[in-house]
């Protein structure tokens, strides 16, 4: 029988416990051990059965228990201290951003992402992108940035995984219970739900806004599950990454367009808009539309206005990971927008097409973001290079290394991921600054002061906890599958709390090669079952529901794990999430990552493991490519490129087995009289001292703030004061350059000196350019020089800007400079002219680059 009316009954908290509700509704508890301890003390068992959710805990705890706690002066005193610390945190009086940017006003940074992984009980994330976004918000909170998160509230979140008896992944889609989540519905002054409207095809759609408070940072989540909408519209925010391409474009319109409108409805004025992955790209379209309406700008001027305040971070190193939409689908959802922007259909589609003139080209969200962003970056040094290669065709005539995609390497939020045991060690030996100023190298050098026995025992406790957790998980998995009681009982003897433990946990996409260890199963079997030096593997991860190849990889591991010889040495933990991840990155001895290089953009799970003293064993891809050095972990192979995937798998699997057999296993089991592996501990200390200052999300947020956010905010403040005059001037400059460029050409190039030069000499070069009415300061005339290969191609060249020596009345200008001869060997140069603006530098985005053709 369906209820005709529903009520939400809240617990009645005694006055002494009123702070519990305040603490529960701010997600700072997710990374504050003292606050977590408060809720554990309320009811330890209920804390676990509610999925470590303080809102659900307070909704289910008995009034009798609350009365007992109110009479317990020890608990009340502890609660008061934690609440006072929380209030001091919120005041942000000593936060980094306020100290370093004391003149910054309240204008904020809007951070848009399709998913956010803050904590287990807010199930609106699927994997690495969401966890990274969550860590970004947490560090922004700790550092005091004026940042606001914008995302979607999914009724179903991401799927829950379980495996059938054959090892084939199955999916469940439980609904999020909003009454038991640490979020609140945003209401207007009359107490009604605040509503944002937009069009969905030709119909109006209404969106509600939920707010999750992440420390000092508000996270606003848009929700289409509103009674005024049709059932079809209500399903838009029903499931993370669910449905077909049409559902994807509808979700991304709600995120981008609805998100910008939500900020306006909330009265929030942002100067910086960060698109974290291409899902958020439609925010740029809405901001262009707004600029036309509010400032009376032309389309070109509005593009300049919006672009100047936008940042784009790409997270995918492969074209298959980019959202592409058929032009007819764009028509269906943006036909009305063409007129609102004052552009034709082809002009609009050109924003997202690699080749604007090719009508068969799909509309790329990544290309849209690149064209409409002032800054763009990858998420590791290698990924930045891969992205420049992937998108170089957007910048015809440009040298690949000057493609305007930089890199800011990801980081992880240490307070969220470092175990309590190691946090206590760091507090004692590193001092409290490791938690709020983890980029200080001197702090991390103190890890060498931690006694070997103490460091090792803390690590062993985490391995013991991981093994106990894996046993409980395996027991529950077997019971849910209806396994025989004998198998369920055996789960309690699975794994060895003292054996070398390899952790492998990630999304089961084929490029991550989850089964590389199974390439030679008999060799792996010998490694695992060595009588004196046993090895065990704990695995977790989900395949996308539609990725049958990924599901097959999971099935292969389950079948291998069921072999009698190793049934107790290999465990697959179902339903990988943040809770499982914490146990694994804190308790493994070795963290394995073996993707196909260079398809791993970053790989933050390895950073989480390293922060806990776990040693990485990885392909030189993503973050490990820049982090690795001997003595902090192991690299599988080098930078080799193989003729086939089969050859690459064979060679790298063999290298992986060799490392395990000849280096890793012997080092782990090489013990002294105290049963402590001194060599292994030395590597742990070297790993922590080297990587600790480099791979925290605090460092990452510093980089975003100083490289992108602060300069953009300062520039946009001037733009606001000038009432969009800069955007108008920039559009006029682009128009003037574009109209004249057809007549711009290099007339001659002359190099002084003999064909043979000595190291230390300089080769003077003069380039004469026809500017077709442009001024000399409207262009950069450059030489591209460097060593040449046997085919006459310049390798790893350097750009040298030449200086104008005269500005003749006939429009011809000579530019001069000198090439330094720094090393011996054959060198060569080429000459070009490119548009130049004092704000932009060399403007390669328009493809207006003229190279000298002899």
Strand-helix topology:
Elements: H1 19-24, H2 33-42, H3 44-49, H4 54-60, H5 63-70, H6 73-91, H7 96-100, E1 108-112, H8 128-143, E2 147-152, E3 160-163, E4 169-172, E5 184-185, E6 195-200, E7 203-214, E8 217-223, H9 231-234, H10 245-265, E9 270-276, H11 282-295, H12 299-307, E10 310-313, E11 324-325, H13 327-341, H14 345-350, E12 363-364, H15 365-371, E13 375-378, H16 381-390, E14 406-407, H17 414-417, H18 420-429, H19 433-436, H20 441-445, H21 452-480, H22 485-490, E15 500-505, H23 521-528, E16 535-540, H24 548-561, E17 570-573, H25 578-587, E18 590-593, H26 604-611, E19 615-619, H27 622-627, E20 633-636, H28 645-669, H29 678-691, H30 697-721, H31 725-740, E21 745-751, E22 762-770, E23 779-787, E24 798-801, E25 803-807, E26 812-820, E27 827-837, E28 841-842, E29 850-851
Parallel strand pairs: 1-2, 1-9, 2-8, 9-10, 10-13, 13-14, 15-16, 15-18, 16-17, 18-19, 19-20
Antiparallel strand pairs: 3-4, 5-7, 6-7, 7-8, 11-12, 21-22, 22-26, 23-24, 23-27, 25-26, 27-28, 27-29
Helix pairs in contact: 2-6, 8-30, 10-11, 11-12, 12-31, 21-25, 25-26
């Amino acid at each position: 029988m369906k209820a005709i009316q529903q009520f939400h009954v809240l617990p009645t908290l005694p006055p002494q416990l009123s702070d519990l509700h305040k603490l529960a509704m701010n997600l700072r508890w997710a990374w504050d051990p003292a606050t977590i301890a408060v809720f554990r003390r309320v009811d330890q068992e209920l804390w676990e059965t509610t999925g470590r959710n303080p809102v659900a805990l307070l909704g289910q705890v008995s009034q009798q228990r609350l009365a007992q706690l109110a009479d317990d002066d020890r608990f009340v005193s502890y609660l008061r201290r934690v609440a006072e610390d929380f209030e001091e945190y919120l005041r942000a009086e000593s936060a980094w951003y306020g100290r370093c940017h004391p003149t910054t006003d309240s204008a904020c940074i809007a951070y848009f992402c399709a998913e956010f992984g803050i904590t287990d009980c807010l199930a609106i994330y699927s994997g690495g992108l969401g966890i990274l976004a969550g860590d970004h918000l947490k560090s922004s909170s700790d550092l005091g940035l004026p940042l606001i998160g914008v995302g979607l509230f999914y009724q179903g979140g991401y799927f829950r995984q379980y495996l059938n008896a054959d090892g084939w992944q199955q999916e469940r889609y439980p609904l999020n219970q909003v009454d038991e989540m640490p979020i609140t519905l945003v209401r207007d002054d009359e107490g009604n739900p605040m509503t944002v409207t937009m069009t969905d095809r030709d119909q109006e759609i209404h969106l509600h806004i939920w707010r999750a408070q992440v420390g000092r940072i508000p996270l606003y989540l848009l929700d289409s599950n509103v009674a005024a909408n049709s059932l079809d519209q209500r399903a838009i925010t029903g499931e993370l990454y669910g449905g077909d391409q049409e559902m994807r474009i509808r979700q991304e319109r709600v995120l981008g367009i609805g998100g910008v409108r939500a900020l306006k409805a909330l009265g929030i004025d942002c100067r910086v808009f960060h698109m974290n992955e291409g899902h958020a790209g439609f925010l740029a379209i809405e901001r262009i539309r707004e600029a036309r309406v509010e400032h009376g700008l032309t389309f070109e001027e509005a593009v300049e206005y919006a672009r100047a305040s936008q940042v784009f971070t790409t997270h995918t190193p492969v074209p298959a990971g980019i959202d592409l939409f058929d032009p007819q689908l764009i028509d269906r959802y943006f036909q009305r927008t063409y007129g609102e922007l004052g552009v034709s259909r082809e002009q609009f589609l050109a924003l997202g097409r690699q080749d604007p003139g090719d009508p068969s080209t799909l509309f790329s969200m990544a290309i849209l973001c690149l064209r409409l962003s002032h800054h763009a970056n990858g998420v590791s040094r290698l990924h930045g290079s891969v992205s420049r290669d992937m998108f170089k065709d957007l910048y015809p005539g440009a040298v690949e290394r000057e493609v305007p995609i930089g890199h800011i390497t990801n980081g992880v939020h240490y307070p969220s991921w470092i175990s309590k045991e190691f946090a206590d060690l760091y507090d004692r030996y590193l001092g409290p600054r490791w938690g709020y100023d983890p980029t200080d190298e001197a702090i991390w050098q103190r890890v060498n002061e931690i006694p070997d026995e103490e460091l090792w025992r803390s690590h062993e406790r985490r391995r013991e906890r991981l093994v106990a957790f894996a046993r409980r998980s395996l027991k529950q998995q077997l019971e849910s599958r209806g396994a025989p009681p004998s198998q369920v009982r055996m789960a309690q003897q699975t794994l060895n709390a003292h054996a070398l433990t390899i952790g492998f946990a990630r999304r089961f996409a084929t490029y991550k090669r989850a089964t590389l260890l199974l390439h030679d199963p008999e060799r792996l079997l010998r490694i695992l079952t060595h009588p004196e030096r046993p090895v065990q593997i704990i695995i977790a991860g989900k395949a996308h529901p539609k990725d049958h190849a990924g599901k097959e990889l999971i099935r292969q591991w389950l079948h291998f794990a069921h072999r009698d010889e190793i049934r107790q040495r290999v465990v697959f933990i179902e339903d990988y999430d943040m809770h499982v991840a914490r146990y694994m990155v804190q308790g493994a001895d070795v963290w394995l990552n073996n993707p196909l290089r260079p398809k791993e953009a970053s790989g933050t799970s390895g950073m989480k493991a390293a922060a806990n003293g776990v040693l990485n064993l990885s392909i030189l891809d993503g973050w490990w490519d820049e982090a690795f050095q001997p003595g902090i972990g192991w690299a599988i192979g080098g930078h080799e490129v193989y003729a086939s995937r089969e050859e690459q798998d064979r060679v790298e699997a063999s290298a992986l087995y060799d490392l395990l057999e000849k280096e890793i296993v012997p080092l782990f089991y090489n013990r002294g009289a105290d049963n402590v592996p001194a060599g292994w501990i030395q590597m742990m200390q070297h790993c922590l001292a080297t990587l600790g200052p480099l791979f925290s999300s605090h460092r990452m947020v510093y980089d975003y703030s100083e490289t992108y956010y602060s300069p953009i905010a300062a520039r946009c403040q001037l733009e606001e004061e000038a009432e969009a005059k800069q955007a108008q001037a920039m559009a006029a400059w682009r128009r003037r350059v574009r109209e004249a460029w057809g007549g711009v050409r290099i007339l001659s190039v002359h190099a002084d000196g003999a064909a043979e030069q000595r190291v230390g000499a300089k080769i003077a070069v003069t380039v004469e350019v026809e500017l077709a009415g442009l001024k000399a300061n409207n262009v950069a005339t450059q030489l591209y020089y460097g060593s040449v290969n046997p085919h006459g191609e310049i390798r790893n060249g350097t750009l040298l800007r030449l200086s104008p020596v005269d500005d003749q009345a006939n429009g011809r200008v000579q530019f001069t400079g000198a090439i330094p001869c720094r090393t011996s060997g054959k060198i060569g140069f080429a000459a070009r002219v490119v548009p130049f603006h004092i704000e932009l530098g060399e403007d390669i985005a328009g493809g207006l680059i003229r190279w000298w053709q002899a």
